[in-house]
Design brief:
Radius of gyration: 19 Å
Distance between the termini: 47 Å
Strand content: under 5%
Largest sheet: none
Order of helices and strands: HHHHHH
CATH superfamily of the largest domain: Winged helix-like DNA-binding domain superfamily/Winged helix DNA-binding domain
CATH architecture of the largest domain: Orthogonal Bundle
Length: about 140
């Protein structure tokens, strides 16, 4: 239902803006960008939360050892740092990183979606990873 609503909104926007698109060859790119922006907007507005334990009763949650809790906390903090830093990167670097690392797409698939050369995908991903590694090292010290 949600997916259908988003798709309907995207095609409504496309219909309303069809005459404003100068290059008819870039329609698929325009649709992709609009879809991505609408999905980002939806999740930002809803701030979707999930039950990480997937249990109905609190008593069913097993108490983890303090060592496991510490590791999980560090992982969560590291993930938050990476996601926050991604917001400071240029859109093309951020998008490639998300498609590759979180989307699990291949270099070739990312290049096809972004309509750029596969070597450029590799280069941007390398630069993004280096920036994130540098940031993590600063935080750890």
């Amino acid at each position: 239902m949600l997916c259908e609503d988003i798709v309907q909104n995207i095609f409504l926007k496309f219909y309303e803006n069809m005459d404003l698109i100068k290059n008819k060859n870039s329609i698929s790119y325009w649709l992709f960008k609009t879809a991505r922006n609408d999905i980002y907007s939806f999740f930002r507005s809803k701030k979707v939360k999930s039950d990480q334990f997937n249990v109905l009763d609190v008593d069913e949650v097993n108490k983890a050892s303090s060592e496991n809790l510490e590791i999980e906390y560090e992982k969560r903090e590291l993930k938050n740092i990476v996601l926050n830093e991604l917001d400071n990167l240029p859109d093309e670097q951020k998008e490639i990183y998300l498609l590759k690392e979180y989307g699990g797409l291949s270099y070739k698939e990312v290049a096809g979606i972004m309509e750029i050369d596969e070597n450029l995908v590799k280069s941007r991903l390398y630069k993004t990873r280096q920036k994130l590694i540098s940031l993590i090292r600063k935080v750890e010290t």
